[in-house]
Amino acid sequence: MNLKLLNKMKIYIKLSLITSIGFIPFMGNSQETIYPSSAQKGITAITHATVHVGNGKVLEDANVVFENGKITSVGQATIPSSATIIDAKGKKVYPGLILPSSDIGLHEVGNGVRGSNDFLEIGENNANIRSIVAYNADSKILGVLRENGILLAGVAPSGSLIEGLSSVVQFSAWNYEDAAYKMDNGLYINFPNYSTNPNAHGPASSLQRSNERLETIRQFFNDAKAYLAEKNHVSTNLRFEAIKGLFNGTQKLFVRANGVKQMLLAIELAQSIGCPLVLVGASDSYQIAPILAKNKVAVILEEEHALPSMEDDDIDQPYKTASVLQKAGVLYCLNDGHTESRYRNLAFNAGTAATYGLSKEEALSAITKNTAEILGIADKTGTIEVGKDANLLISKGDILDMRGNQLEKAFIQGRDVSLDNKQKQMYERYKFKYNLK
Amino acid sequence: MKKLILTSGFFMSFLFLKAQETLPINGIRDVRSGTFVFTNATIITQPNTKLEKASILIKQGKIVAIGTQISIPTDAQVIDSKGRFIYPSFIDAYTDYGSSSPQNTGRSFNWGAPAQFKSNKPGAFAWNQALHPEINVVEQFSADENIASNFRSNGFGTVFTHLKDGIIRGTGAVVSLGKKNDQLLVLKAKAAQVFSFDKGTSTQSYPTSLMGSIALLRQTYLDAKWYQTKPLSEGLNLSLEAFNSNQSIPQIFLAGADKWAAVRADKIGDEFGVQYIIRGGESGYQRIAEIQKTKASYILDLDFPSTPDVEDPTQARLLSLADMRHWELAATNPGVFEKNNISFALTQDMKDSKSFLSNLKKAISLGLSESKALEALTKTPAQMLGVYDQVGSLEVGKLANFIITDSPIFSSKAKILENWIAGDKFTISSADYPTFSGKYTLKINESNYQIELSKDLKLKVIGKDTLDGKASFANNTVTLSFAASKTSNDLIRLNGNLLGSELTGTGFDATGQSIVWNASKVSEASEKKSEEEKQKSNDLISKITYPFMGYGNEVQPAQETILIKNATVWTNEKDGILSQSDVLLKAGKIQKIGKNISEAGAKIIDGTGKHLTAGIIDEHSHIATVSINEGAQSVTSEVRIGDNLDPEDINIYRQLSGGVTSSHILHGSANTIGGQTQLIKLRWGTNDEGLKFQGADPFIKFALGENVKRTTSMSNNRYPDTRMGVEEVLVDAFDRAAEYDKNMKANPLLTRRDLELDALVEIMNKKRFITCHSYVQPEITYTMRVVENMKKQGYDFNINTFTHILEGYKVADKMKAHGANVSTFSDWYMYKTEVQDAIAYNAAIMYNMGLNVCINSDDAEMARRLNQEAGKTVKYGNVPEVDALKMVTLNPAKALHVDSKVGSIKVGKDADVVLWTDNPLSIYAKSLYTIVDGVVYFDREKDAQMRVKISEERNALVQKMLNDKKSGAATKPVKPSGKALLLCSDHDEQDENHTHESQTIE
Description:
heterodimer, A: alpha/beta, Urease, subunit C, domain 1, TIM Barrel, 2 domains, eight-stranded mixed beta sheet, 30% helix, B: alpha/beta, hydrolase activity, acting on carbon-nitrogen (but not peptide) bonds (chain B), Amidohydrolase (chain B), signal (chain B), hydrolase (chain B)
């Protein structure tokens, strides 16, 4: 725990809060004693804050009250006298950020450690693979992400052709069953490559092979549809059983695709199945924004902080793709796929989008409300509205900008979440060694 | 028409007067004088020298007389050449004709595969398999009639041939394309020595990179010189011996089409007093001043890109403007060389040699003069190769090598009829049989047909319905076929010869009955104007820009006097942040800082509400270079990034847009002691030398940890494989260098100069400085100790900078004591094992410990946002904003020893500044202007205009390609443009032939 931060917090946080920070470990403890929070007790009220609702609205000097993990009032309503008050005057309150697409919990060390890889199963068709069962709720990465306001994430296998089922997890949990926020919400597909550009969209591949792979995918869904139309089976097909939801509206199809051809073919595929489609990656989506809007295709932009794919492209193209989608009325959200900073800069991806065409509130929606809608959890989270889970952040300043982004508190389902992590502890450890303030 | 071209040619198989005396003859000798005289011809004896109605007399394969009034010996065969044109046969100065060159020399470096450290070639030869100056192609040369006939059909009579393989390829020979015994074909046995950058079929690991090839060449020059002292330690080295003796002949360097490669090759020559003839430079027109500066002669091919099929817009998008322009402009290259007085020969060393002559005509239509074209195919190559006394012009005493054409050779319809080589006739194509074309009355049985045969062998059967038939000429006979009537499918087929004025022969009528036919001429064929090719417009759309690509400028931006008014100025000096202040940039320097400055004639930039900072300096970058890693050995201090800069990397421009003005281009992290680095200024549009930051101290890259011990390889056999070994590699390297330093001082003439050790000695004598890739605390500590221990041997130096240094916070005190600078990432973590303890507070701790802290990119994208990365030190550890900005400006300037020139806004420093829209540490800040040396290299408004221009020019070129396709041009699928992005751990070169095996670890 950052002592300086803690001291400042003490000034702002009223006495009654001590109970809830009682379990936050002090210096010298390792990450293993950063505990998942227990259920919210009583009523909590964040007061006098600038509330960024997530839907575009900003409420000045507003209160957010929550009880039993749910938001009970937002705005200027009277605060129940029994409420624990957190005075957030001069601070900003945001919905918890949601990372839409990741391998968190499946992939601990980025490179060179085979033992830490649990995201890629053998075989071309892994439709039945479920990311949630391998999800490591004790991943060391989570603490860093919480510190950066990310409280929920979509987790998916990756690498094969039909990659498997994704789930949404929350970041304060003892185990995967605790963590599951929405299980098996979608099937991930890695769409065959239809680009001959070796730089932008992976290695150049033969179009013939791509056609064969696409045919494999199409046949799989046709066979699944036929199989699922029949209730009684002599032998069970685990792959078909796993994707029932695609045919009854409870699952979405997530397709990793970047090129225009890939994306158009993916739309065709989803329409033939009759399921909602989410394009993941979609670096060229700005070229077909009206088509995406018209066909109600959602988009997860993998990484704002990327180089343009072609030399002649606008030098800031990836930065402004979000605003193109916004203007065209596409439902989209932002991810942070950067492999070295490991997801922590989600808010700054949104900040960049705000610098290049989005309003700040639109940029915020792109990492909260829109994401929740795309992942199918908008009934529970994504905005600060009555009835939703109290997934909240309190920041000293603008979280989209590194100059303002200083998280002071975070709540998942009303539970006061520790913002401590190994990095902060190492910071403390060496400040101690060097006798630094 | 093609049917007339007899690619195998005819050949007279007798011997001239003197037979080969050592050669026994099986049978009866057949000796002839070989005396021919060609009369009434137009003879072009050499470029710009034309004799009309002249004769040329040849005997025994040589020219005996030439002129308008020569006496004709009685035994001469007189060939009336009225209407014919005679030129010297062409000379190709770069081939592998008749050699045993390998077909496929493609190579790729496999990061994971075991290394091969020694040459596989048995014998007393060079240590490196790619060096074989001892090979003389003449010892393996054997004429190859198939290939020879291909050359001859394009008019060539003589070629230079060599073994196309390796970096030093040995000597090539000048040989005749005749059909004689090999002994008689060699004009010059060792005509030139040939070099390249490409190690070809060598299986040895070293070198893996372009800069490695360059270093290997430089070292070989030094070794060869040293070998002349007969060093006992070397024993016999046949390669060095040969290399030394090859120095007296011309030196040809295969650089390739890329203009920068030509410049690179020439620089190697400059260093060792050798002027190479450069094979390559086909993109030279894009940078003709630099090409001219090499003072080299060139051997250019005419391999022009065919029209890309751009109908599919998603494919068209993959083609860069640069490649589109090259499609349009490639054929202008020889003309541009001519205009700039650059000597060049032409070669058909290209993928499709069949297009050689048509491409030559295209080059002529785009500016190359006919006389220069001829010179480039005759005199110039002959002189280059030292055989102008034998070939290259039509003069008495020279070989009877000439071609006979039916019209001036560069006219569009010209055909080469015969190619005479050393007095031997090779028929290339038949003449048009002017007597053969015409209108005839054809009699078959009792029927008469009116037919017309055109000069280009088109057959028409004239009647109520004029029908097209087929005509061909092969094996000296005419073949005709046509349908008996419009409604019939049955063909009449005829074959015959021109006897007298009558075509006659045998055939079958439509019913299959055997017939005899004859056709008597009625009149000449109607001189139908051959469908003139639509006069193709030679209006060129493409612009020449600097660099030659999108976002290049037609005129290089110039230094200006610029007055920035009323800005918030982050000085990085004692004054801190000045509000509402003016800064004057003049003559490339910061001239004045203050309020209410005025300067007549200055360009005024309104800085109201804007922030002005010093330009960003990236301590760790890998842009603007062709290769990054020489990974074959653990110590490669001999290689230099500066040898292979790429001034046309779009990332230079992209990073300017992020306020970067200087970048330290580092060797990668593939080995413990990597290569020499290069500090550059982002002067967009300049050449490689222009990029270099002049007067800066030289640096070198070291690396520790996982990349060096090749953790991701399952079969590493390169020492070291542990951190323990890494430490010993360092100890050993400095120890070797100390011994070398001693020997060099004691005995400079007899000591082998070693480029690898030279660099280490420079380090030890504080003339070169180390930036060391490092992660975990033990390796950081032992590296400091290793160099500190060198004090015992009298060398007092240190690690100048630890880069990456993600566990630097653990040993900040030790580094402080050692005196190292540190350069780190703001928030990278958990991307491999050795960064599990990486923390975002690293920079703040090191800062608080008083270290000079830099934040670097090592990432072409992130370099565009280094200001924000510095801003993160405010978030992680509360570094004051003024000091945070210094981490990407003044601090790297200090670490790189250039803080007297850049890094702050101070009078007298270089005018390297950025004007931002917002607080520079904010994510909302965009640069409006990025200025280097007082030159505006990035201007956001101009950028918007350039985007429009790029799209307009692309569109115009796409339309031209589509029109080409519509009018029947052959197209090929789009080959995506672009260079791979190099990473710290990459072994890729930016070469389309190499497979890309990116390792995205840092």
